[in-house]
Amino acid sequence: MSENTKWRAWIAAPALLATGALALTGCIGNAPPEESSGSDTVVSGTGNDEPGDTVKIGFSAPAADHGWMGAITKSALSTAEQYDDVELLQAEATNDVNMQISGIETFINDGVDAIVLLPFDGDALTEVSLKAMEAGIPVINVDRELSSPFASRVTVLGDNYGMGVSAGTYMCEQLGDNPDAVIAEIQGIANLPLTQDRSQGFADALDDCGLKVSTQVAADFTIQGGETATSNLLQAEPEIDAIWNHDDDQGVGVLAAIDNAGRDEFFMVGGAGSLDVMEMIKADDTVMKATVVYPSTQAADGIKLARLVAQNKNMGDLVSANVPRKIQLDAPVVTSENVDDYIGLGFES
User: Fold this and answer.
1) Domains and CATH numbers, the chain
2) pTM beyond cutoff 0.85
């Protein structure tokens, strides 16, 4: 298929008219009128939340083998249930690429109005996503980018680089003029692009205030990995001023290692925004003082956007016509001062 043909297939997807109104605020989307997301900053329901033509949305995500991933699916299903005009078809959650491809093909054969997809592997899911787009079914891609710009109508992303910047900026604020501060970083899986983006943002923010990472270790986004990596870190570093842990799920193991070692001379910043961590921040009686949000609401926003696109509506806060092609969500720092604004979005590890 030629690039021109692909382009025509993309612009032929729904959402060519701009009507109604919707505000996506921060990382959480716009709740229907009677719903509350737990944040005082949420703009309540608008005209776009009024029932419209029924749309059939196919949803596919990897297996919920991680607290954040479980929250992704839970929030997507909950959001779909809030709309009487949304019929949601859910593919079996799987980390098998071929099974996920088969699920998307089933959606295409069923003639759904839109597909919300969090691909286990973006490259592997690109071809079937192109097939959906070419069939006139808009794909709302979530979290992991596909390898062709023609494979989705909208892409909703977290901000991995921004997570690092937020964590580093917070540490700069807390450590002040202390160029000798010992800063440790606990990554997830070191060779993943998302990890590298987080680390680069962290290093850049620290450099801006004259600080740097002293020790960097890698876990594997699991509790056991977090505990092992942190135990090794604490043995190697007798004095630490601050720790950034990339992932709150593996943070359960990180905190276990800290507790076992009896260390508390440092403060810690988490990553992703789990409910357990937010409750620790609120209590303010541990080394955990902040976490950086990586929204587990991305697929929920994907459901809302799929509904808008399929119903030929637009986001009401925009002057320009049509739902944007790419939306990157914020990576705010949650502290004891603002935790009440975010705790309703925390996911269970």
Assistant:
1) 3-158+297-328 (3.40.50.2300), 160-293 (3.40.50.2300)
2) no
